[in-house]
Amino acid sequence: MSKINENFNKLQSGYLFATTAKKVGAFSAANPDKKVIKMSIGDATQPLAPAVIAAIKKAADEMGTLEGFRGYGPDFGYDFLREVIAENDFKARGVDISADEIFISDSAKCDTGNIQELFSTDLTIAVLDPVYPTYVDTNVMAGRTGDYNPARGNFDGIIYMPASAENGFKPALPKEVPGLIYLCYPNNPTGTTLSKSELSTWVDYAKKNGSLILFDAAYEAYISHADIPHSIYEIEGAKDVAIEFRSFSKTAGFTGTRCAFTVIPKGLTAKDASGNDVSLHGLWGRRMSTKFNGVPYIIQRAAEACYSPEGKVQLKQTIDYYMNNAKILREGLTAAGISCYGGVDAPYIWIKTPGDFGSWDFFDYLLANTAVAGTPGVGFGNAGEGYLRLTAFNTTENTLEAVARIQKLKF
Amino acid sequence: MSKINENFNKLQSGYLFATTAKKVGAFSAANPDKKVIKMSIGDATQPLAPAVIAAIKKAADEMGTLEGFRGYGPDFGYDFLREVIAENDFKARGVDISADEIFISDSAKCDTGNIQELFSTDLTIAVLDPVYPTYVDTNVMAGRTGDYNPARGNFDGIIYMPASAENGFKPALPKEVPGLIYLCYPNNPTGTTLSKSELSTWVDYAKKNGSLILFDAAYEAYISHADIPHSIYEIEGAKDVAIEFRSFSKTAGFTGTRCAFTVIPKGLTAKDASGNDVSLHGLWGRRMSTKFNGVPYIIQRAAEACYSPEGKVQLKQTIDYYMNNAKILREGLTAAGISCYGGVDAPYIWIKTPGDFGSWDFFDYLLANTAVAGTPGVGFGNAGEGYLRLTAFNTTENTLEAVARIQKLKF
User: Does one domain contain both B185 and B296?
Assistant: First the structure.
């Protein structure tokens, strides 16, 4: 008889963004005259760069010829892409990551969700709280956690590391040692960052305790301050303790175009039951050869174009555009008496809900009174209660309008 | 401490196609003057259809405008694609599958590999022998099998259902009842098919025993005979017992373009530990929302174009081209005294190795003496020993040359 994976039953309600999307849909249906400004999901809105479009069309033409047609690509991505990544994202920053340590994929969501497959289900994971839901839910599905604990509002068997205004959004190192530590910096959802020396303490902790850091750097392109590391491998010793996840989604507006990559240094290992060191590069390679069939050739060419001289200029313009929106949000909301965090080296503004508003109450209030849709902070974890996330990905026009609408409210 | 998933240690050597590719690479390096004809991996060689190229370029242009830009798409695929699939692949054949029962993905390899996540790890799976390796390896990685049994040359805890010339490649129904039954028809690797009445016996068996059929129909576009079902849902009752996997890889030469879909009828259920019926449509939806972020918009438009009037004509021409190659192979090898199976409603020819040749010996012999690369049958399972798979995906010119080279050998 076919029986389900019972771990799925532990999951709570819908995926966060599906729930907010439903609420926004219901509001729109009930208020057809009101223009909803969506600042909830972190989705790009600006067009793909002309260099990217040109690369797609050129690759499409190639695929239409017998000589230029490409079938299955190399399992871990084309060398032309792996090499420009190694050169531009790592070597140019003085980081020694080689092309064959880079695995091209369709999505950092997929990679951060799938990476746990490499590890024993009896490992304990540690996550920041608030946290991107995929890290937690994929471990729940795999049976690496306990049940949902309704009294506490999160899962048993996970080490949650709270980050809030009280600790300056710098979580303390965990006392109980986790096998896997998920870190995301620049952080989703809070938009906050760690300096090199702050990130060093995590690398040192992992080294000392034998933990592995899963470092999600999907937002590194938004960093403007020199002391904020773009890659965890800028930190001494990180190649021995960390896997890094990157994405073109936010860097190049590829949320609907789909390309990402994961970096696993060749010397990185974890233990097997007999205490032997096993190469995680080899293990992930086996996982990807068996369960993945690569990113479209056309899309890999599109990603490559992001590193061309004109591509770089065009991407930078769009990132500057979004970061100007972030500035408008921060300054406008601060002027309205709302405390804002993040939004300096990241496209997310993490606002403290005014007065006694809980996260969902404020989400509902904001939607009802300004037609601005954010994401309730508590949706990312308990420590997110009393916060709401706004993104800088809308147009400047809409961002200005959202600020103007919010400024009319009395708190 | 970070510890690995020990189940990975049960896996045997490299992925089959990686191993054959290495051998071919070594041969090419040692024989730079010899033209290798690759008939190993089932990879398309003909250009993408002009209708597909045009759709890609149009979508790329859209993505370059503010109005036409698309970020994250709907979790389960765009309606424009789900609807043409439902209409053309199902309704047009009298099969009642609706658009919202179709989940768009990047790969049938991914989907057939990931689907097992929905099920309890203590289920037993049944697979055909020979079998597409992904079905087995993904269950091994999940811990749903026992260890590799070196004496028997396959995994403990899996029900293998041998298919060979002795039983006409029609495996007997399993005596021990499996939770999940993987069926692939038209079959990879043997190229053989089941008639509607033969497939009905599997549906009836599943219904009677509470098993679930995972039906891989990636090669349905190659069917030319009316009695061979394109979809398992052509069989009465199949919607209660089967999930179906489809792909554009072989249908439209999308091996390097990446689009596929999985069909889960809304009424299909499996039991939870308390004996409740749980919707598999809902469970897969949850899995996909959590661990997947959709197929590129541009690629979904490319897939849609396969169903346009000109797209259909163009795809048919390419399939006819490949099936003419299959005919050349079958007839040419038969004339050379080699027994061939399959290749009538499928792009694979399953040849009986002549004389005392084992699969790998014959693979090596053929490569060394004709520079033709096949895939050793035993690489797909024990019952594949004494067979070799050739594909019809090369050019007609190369196919004719391969036949001519093989015909010169003495057996």
Answer: yes
Which of A308, A331, A363 terminates a domain? The answer is A308
CATH of the domain at A178: 3.40.640.10
Say yes or no: A317 contacts chain B, CB-CB below 8 A: no
Distance, CA of B329 to CA of A43 (rounded, Å): 50
Torsion over CA: A164, A166, A169, A173 (sign): negative
Query: Is there a domain that residue B1 lies in?
Result: no
Q: How many Å apart are CA B245 and CA B248, to the nearest integer?
A: 11
Q: Is A1 within a domain?
A: no
Using left for φ > 0, alpha for ψ between -120 and 50, and beta otherwise, residue B342 falls in left
Could you tell me if B281 and B397 lie in one domain? no
Strands A348-352 and A387-391 turn out to be antiparallel
Predicted local distance difference test score (pLDDT) of residue A2: 85
Domain range holding B281? Answer: 53-309
Looking at the predicted structure, is the pLDDT value of residue A14 above 90? no
Which residues, in sequence order, are CB contacts of B256 under 8 Å at separation 6+? A63, A69, A70, A71, A72, A73, A294, A296, A297, B44
Closest CA to B348 of B365, B370, B326: B326
Indicate the residue among B285, B309, B333 that finishes a domain.
B309
- Do residues B300 and B336 share a domain? no
In whole angstroms, what is the distance from residue B366 CA to residue B380 CA? 18
Q: What is the pLDDT of residue A398?
A: 96
B142 and B193: one domain?
yes
pTM of the model: 0.96
pLDDT(B14) > 70: no
Residues A287 and A323 in one domain: no
Q: Which pLDDT value is given to residue B42?
A: 86
B58 CB neighbour count, 10 Å cutoff? 17
pLDDT tens digit string along A277-333? Answer: 999 999 999 999 999 999 999 999 999 999 999 999 999 999 999 999 999 999 999
* Same structural domain, B35 and B166: no
Give the Cα separation of B40 and B25 in Å (integer): 13
* A4 → closest Cβ in B70, B177, B270: B270
Q: Return residues 120-139 of B near A (CB < 8 Å).
A: 120-123, 133-134, 137-138
- Residue-wise pLDDT for B161-206, tens only, equals 999 999 999 999 999 999 999 999 999 999 999 999 999 999 999 9
Residues in chain A: 411
Q: Are residues A303 and A320 in the same domain?
A: no
- Rounded distance, CA A42 to CA A20, Å? 13
| pLDDT tens figures, A155-170 | 999 999 999 999 999 9
> Which residues from chain A sit within 8 angstroms of residue B272, using beta carbons?
3-4, 6, 9
List the single range of A153-157, A396-400, B9-13, B62-66 with lowest mean pLDDT.
B9-13
Tell me the residues of chain A between 149 and 178 that have a Cβ less than 8 Å away from chain B. 177
pLDDT, residue A15, reads 67
Q: Is residue B88 part of a domain?
A: yes
Phi and psi angles of residue A307, each rounded to the nearest 5 degrees, phi first: -100, 0
For residues A14 and A78, membership in a common domain is answered with: no
Indicate yes or no: CB of A2 within 8 angstroms of CB of B287. no
Question: Is the Cβ of B248 closer than 8 Å to some Cβ of chain A?
Answer: no
Number of independent structural domains in chain A: 2
